[in-house]
């Protein structure tokens, strides 16, 4: 009887060990599959973004750099603030590459918009000199600086392989998120369909865009103090919290280890996000 009980107990333990091993194996396979899927999605998205912004970089190395940054910030946050710090550092490291790509895209778009009035004036002069629209766009692609020259080079390459010019200009509008391109595309498409003096239209559009850029520059200069104050107000609670944590680590650690501390942090984060949104709405004036 004792032998049967021992055998049954041994079998139960063996079954439990097998179940645990299978669970660990399945979990490992699932995590590996999820990691591979995330890596593939990251590489594809990063490759598309880099190509669109004409940045020569290896997406695989960027993924490895992102992993190293995640490990570094996560460990640093854990050493400074515990589990909550590790979580914050990991989230920031995951979001940082996307924020960097978005920043470079916005900067490239802003540079393109500032270059567009001079390019339209050059195109208008070329049309008045007797060149056709295709020859004028070719001059823009060879004599204008990047990124404007890069975008018009793509437009001409697509036009030469048989794609309609209107479609190529529309796709350039999709790559460059700028309403100024809508005006240029509309002027060119209307002129190609119903005729008219395209040179005068482009010159008037260029003058309008120059005035708009001049006004936006004045607004940026006048609202720069408000943006600086927004950054100071946004960083001040984080700085004060860090100083208090260094002075009273036991009391401040309750914010990261107790449920009511997490609620306080969530309320603070929501209020700071609302404040940042309101400041952004105040200082961003659409012309």
TrEMBL record:
Superkingdom, natural source: Bacteria
Residues of the Type II secretion system protein GspF domain: 120-244
Membrane spanning residue stretches: 12-32, 53-74, 80-105, 228-247, 259-279
Main location: membrane
Keywords, sorted A to Z: Cell membrane, Membrane, Transmembrane, Transmembrane helix
Alphabetized InterPro entries for the sequence: T2SS_GspF_dom, T2SS_GspF_sf
One GO CC term on file: plasma membrane
Gene3D superfamilies per UniProt: Type II secretion system (T2SS), domain F
Topology with respect to the bilayer: Multi-pass membrane protein
Location within or outside the cell: Cell membrane
Keyword Cell membrane among UniProt keywords: yes
Protein name in UniProt: Tight adherence protein B
Species of origin: Povalibacter uvarum
């Amino acid at each position: 009887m004792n032998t049967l009980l021992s055998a049954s107990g041994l079998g139960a333990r063996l079954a439990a060990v097998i179940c645990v091993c299978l669970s660990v194996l399945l979990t490992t396979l699932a995590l590996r599959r999820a990691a591979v899927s995330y890596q593939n999605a990251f590489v594809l998205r990063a490759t598309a973004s880099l190509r669109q912004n004409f940045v020569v970089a290896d997406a695989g190395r960027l993924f490895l750099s992102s992993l190293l940054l995640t490990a570094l910030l996560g460990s640093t946050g854990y050493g400074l603030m515990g589990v909550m710090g590790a979580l914050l550092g990991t989230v920031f490291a995951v979001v940082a590459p996307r924020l960097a790509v978005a920043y470079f895209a916005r900067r490239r778009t802003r540079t393109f918009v500032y270059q567009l009035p001079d390019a339209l004036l050059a195109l208008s002069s070329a049309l008045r000199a007797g060149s056709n629209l295709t020859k004028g766009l070719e001059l823009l692609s060879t004599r204008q600086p990047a990124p404007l020259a890069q975008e018009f080079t793509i437009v001409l390459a697509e036009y030469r392989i048989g794609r309609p010019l209107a479609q190529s200009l529309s796709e350039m509008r999709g790559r460059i998120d700028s309403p100024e391109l809508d005006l240029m595309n509309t002027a060119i498409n209307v002129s190609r369909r119903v005729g008219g003096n395209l040179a005068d239209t482009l010159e008037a559009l260029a003058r309008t865009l120059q005035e708009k850029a001049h006004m936006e520059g004045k607004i940026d200069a006048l609202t720069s103090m408000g943006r600086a104050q927004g950054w100071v107000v946004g960083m001040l609670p984080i700085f004060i919290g860090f100083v208090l944590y260094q002075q009273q680590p036991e009391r401040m650690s309750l914010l990261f280890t107790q449920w009511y501390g997490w609620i306080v942090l969530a309320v603070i984060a929501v209020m700071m996000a609302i404040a940042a949104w309101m400041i952004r709405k105040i200082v961003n004036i659409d012309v």
